[in-house]
């Protein structure tokens, strides 16, 4: 059988389907920095300049990208940083030290945003000391 060249689904044809492995993967990423972290960053980066902070997070993402440069993967993985956003207290989601509440609220907010726009990965950096309540309501 010949490889399919049309857009028919496997149910629409009796031919074998051949897949070409994708060797290049681009992962779009938006980084969010919460209010607690943005208070801490000027001391850490010795700058109040947001562009310098964004540049540092681009460098962090480049370092992560380096971790994916392995011949055994047989693929090139590239992260595209769409934006670094500084979050403030808002009604859009709850910033809480309870990690379950915080992440559920953040993920719900991002899920709603992504249905309106192009899809991307979200990474949340926080300056909060997060905790988790176990089954017996213990930290």
UniProtKB/TrEMBL annotation:
Q: Which domain of life is it from?
A: Eukaryota
Cite the GO molecular-function annotations of the record. Answer: metallopeptidase activity
InterPro entries in UniProt = MetalloPept_cat_dom_sf
Q: What is this protein called?
A: Putative tick adams
- Origin species, per record, is Operophtera brumata
Q: What is the lineage of its organism?
A: Eukaryota, Metazoa, Ecdysozoa, Arthropoda, Hexapoda
């Amino acid at each position: 059988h010949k490889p399919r060249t049309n857009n028919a689904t496997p149910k629409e044809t009796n031919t074998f389907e051949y897949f070409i492995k994708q060797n290049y993967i681009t992962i779009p990423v938006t980084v969010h920095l919460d209010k607690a972290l943005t208070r801490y960053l000027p001391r850490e980066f010795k700058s109040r300049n947001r562009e310098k902070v964004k540049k540092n997070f681009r460098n962090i993402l480049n370092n992560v990208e380096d971790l994916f440069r392995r011949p055994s993967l047989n693929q090139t993985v590239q992260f595209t940083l769409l934006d670094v956003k500084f979050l403030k207290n808002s009604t859009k989601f709850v910033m809480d030290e309870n990690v379950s509440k915080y992440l559920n609220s953040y993920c719900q907010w991002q899920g709603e945003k992504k249905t309106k726009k192009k899809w991307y990965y979200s990474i949340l950096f926080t300056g909060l000391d997060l905790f988790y309540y176990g089954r017996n309501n213990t930290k």
